[in-house]
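[Q] Does anyone have a clean structure-token version of this?
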Amino acid sequence: MSNKQLISTIGIGLAAASVSMLTRKSVQKSWEKITDKPAPKDKASSDVELKEAIAWAVVSGISAGVARMVVHYVADKRHSQ
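[A] Here you go.
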């Protein structure tokens, strides 16, 4: 792997991680606004209902996954031009 490819791979990875974290924070704030409760942090806590923990896992997981996919998609499109 050349230095240019390595730098590109590291950059894409950092961008994907950053976008995932920003997306998670955004989803967390949206969750709190919609439900009037903080997003579940400790899913094993007795304060968190199972359906709430599952809903949070689904929403946050899909959001972060889509965000990472978009970063990779944009990077691949940019690289192929």
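[Q] Thanks! Anything notable?
[A] The chain has two helices and no strands.
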